[in-house]
Amino acid sequence: MSVKEVILTVAGLQKLEEELELLKTQRRKEVAGRLKQAIEFGDISENSEYEDAKNEQAFIEGRIIMLEDMLRNAKVIDDNDDDSDVVTLGSTVLLRDMENSVEERYMIVGSAEADPMSNKISNESPVGKAVLGQSKGGAVEVMTPGGALLYQIVDIS
Fold first, then answer.
1. Which has the closest alpha carbon to 142: 95, 100, 108?
2. Which pTM does this prediction carry?
3. Which residues pair with 121 in a beta bridge?
4. Residue 98 has what DSSP assignment?
5. For FRET with 112, which of 16, 31, 70, 79 sits at 20 to 30 Å CA-CA?
6. Backbone angles phi, psi at 4, to 5 degrees
7. 117 class by beta-carbon count within 10 Å (0-12 exposed, 13-18 middle, 19+ buried)
């Protein structure tokens, strides 16, 4: 089985490291305290507080394992590279929809960091795939379930 590389910006790496630290130091202790308190209530077979705490503990431990795995396989990209002639991972691109002239700015990141609500799109997304390796001024066609969309790359930073 091949290990999937996790592409992260420096900020994305720091965010995952901080989450892992919080889970290991603070959240584990909180849940352990809740478990201890729930056990003190007596019969755990019908104790909803105990079940809730056990479920949360399982979630936290699973997330810790996932974060450790992601960090172990992380490849950090330099999102401060001055070469902005071509779209690469870490680039911020300004795209103009050629049908309605609406402009949208996106940062191209690895899938682990993607957050469309913050305009961070994955290099594996249709738009991310289409713009990677393209130059400023170029046009790209993005295939979507609703049909093809045409964008012009207005700026790369």
1. 95
2. 0.69
3. 108
4. T
5. 31
6. -80, 125
7. exposed
Gap between the Cα atoms of 74 and 71, Å rounded = 5
pLDDT profile of the chain (157 residues), mean per 10: 73 90 95 89 78 93 92 79 75 92 92 90 91 90 87 91
Distance in angstroms (rounded) separating the CA atoms of residues 70 and 66: 6
Spatial distance between the Cα atoms of 135 and 37, rounded to a whole number of angstroms? 60
Cβ-count burial 8-21 (b if 16+ within 10 Å, e if not): bbeebbeebeeebe
- The Cα–Cα gap between 139 and 120 comes to 20
Q: Domains of the chain, with CATH numbers?
A: 6-76 (1.10.287.180), 79-156 (3.10.50.30)
3-class SS at 51? helix
DSSP string, 11-27: HHHHHHHHHHHHIIIII
